[in-house]
Every structure is written in structure tokens, then in C-alpha cells.
Amino acid sequence: SKLTNLGHLEMTWRSKVRFHPLLVRILHKSRLRYYGKPEKKMDMPYQAYFEVADGSGMMSMVLWNSLCPEWYHSMKVGTVLLLDKYAIKTSYPFKTHPTPGDSQMKRFATIEISLNVRDPPTEISIIPEEMVKPEWGLPDVKYRFITRSELDDLPNNHSCDVIGLVTFVGRAERARKREHSEDFWLYRWAHAIDGTSDQPFILELFATSQPDVFEHIHPMTYLVCTQMRVIQDLTENPSRTVYLTTSNESQIFITGWHKGQPYTKDAKVKNFIQWTKSQSEADQIKKTVIGGYYPFPRPPDSFLKY
Q1: Is the domain of 91 the same as that of 127?
Q2: Alpha-carbon distance 139 to 27, whole Å?
Q3: For 223-251, what is the mean pLDDT?
Q4: Is residue 77 part of a domain?
Q5: What is the C-alpha separation between 202 and 148, in angstroms, rounded?
Q6: Residue 57 and residue 11 in contact, taking contact as beta carbons nearer than 8 Å
Q7: Whole-structure pTM value
């Protein structure tokens, strides 16, 4: 059928009611958001957004309500979609934006694609990777992997991807989303090493929409975390520690989930796998820890400094 592209949509969307189908690849995926309120009677108040791209650039795509339980888990980073009967809306100004792996990619930020169960009922098709043709010009998923030796030089809030061998994982803890709120964030701390430094990555992992992965992070698993944010303690604390925290678009993968993921082709991921082959599993197991209370960032040694 006759296709359109994202660049053409941005130029012509105001003058059209019906849009031609779109062929796009998913580059980023947010966690699933529940926006239900007791006074509002909605069957499935869910929302998730994705960053999708074609040869012309990248745009946000929002999946609404009952389409979320039906499609959210099938729409992975790297998945190619054929979309028809979608709606175009002006962008929501307050949402977070992932940092694209390809800094040269054009971003269309004024509008977003809206996928609804009606008005109009969107038609979504997933194109299997083996049927994707090079002439469609869809961009590859690109990453920003860093090694532990590079981390200390990165600025606060820098976005990056990491891979490491888990040496410590803490228990799941809860933090209130807001003071006096009944809503909580669930998170756990983990350490992962990659052989480039004596220090591990310290990772603050909030529960994303991947409970099956979040609950099964164990020592000795290969852990990949994407779209992590660098937290640099900007005070004059000599014992300052850099750590990484998840963002709204973070994805987490552990051993058993890596097959077929786009990052397996990345050079730094391949280097890490080579390093693990040179390690003795028995030696590494002796250094691993699981559970317990992990106070972080650590308080100073004395009350005077405190």
C-alpha cells in the first residue's frame, strides 16, 4: 500500500483527516503507566509511549488503554511496526525524552502518534525481522554503552547503557513517591563488574514494567541496563561515589533474555563477553553477596563531617 513517513506527517498533519500507513522501528520504550483514579470509571487506564523512527527521523508514539495489555509486551526495542488508522495529536509537553543512540537523528517533537482502540480503531501489525527489507531504510537501534573505567569522567545526568556481571544484589526496598502519599516506588541496589576497573557499577534499579526480570536479578548473571542516568554527588565530599539510576525508558535484561536483542551486536558488549570467558567462575562466586540492608550513599565517617 501507499506509505507515508514521519517527516511528511509533520508537514501535512493539520490538513489531513486520514493518514497513509506508517512503517517504523521502535528505538525506545517507556515503562507502563497506570493513570486510574477512583472517581473516574475507566476499564483500563493504561498508557505507554515509544520512540519510533523511519528514514526521515524519530517521533513519539503513545499506546492507550486496552491496547496496552494486548500489545505492550510484543512491542520490543527493535520491533518493526506497520501502523494504519492511527491518530496524530500535538505532543504532551511534560513527558521525559530518552537520549537517542544516534545523535544525528532528526527528532519530530511537535506531534505524536496516538494508537487507540476506537476513534479511529488503530490497526497494528508486527513485521517479523526476517521480512524487513533494507530498501525500507529503517534505522538500526543504536546504544551508548560505557565501561566502568569511563564512568567517573561522565557528567551528572548523562545517559548511558551498561553491561556487567552481577556481584551483589540487595533486597527490594520501597520509597514513597511523594510525602504522605500512599504510592511507592519499588527498587533494589545491585553491583556489576566488567573487568575494566577495580570498582563495580553501583546500580539503583527501580522496578520497570519487567517484573519477571526485576525479581530474578541474581549474582553471576549478565546484566544489561539501558537508558541509565549518571548520578554524580556534586558536593565537596571526598568519598563521593558515582552511581547509575534507571530512567522512565530503561530496559533491564539478564541471562536468558539476551538472545535476539539488538545490543548483542555492540562492540563493547562483545568485549565484555570475551572478558567473562577469561574469568574463573569459582573465583567470582566467592566474591558475590545477596540481600541485606545497603545504606547508600554512605554517610560520612564522623558526626563532624556529617
Answers
A1: yes
A2: 9
A3: 85
A4: yes
A5: 10
A6: no
A7: 0.91
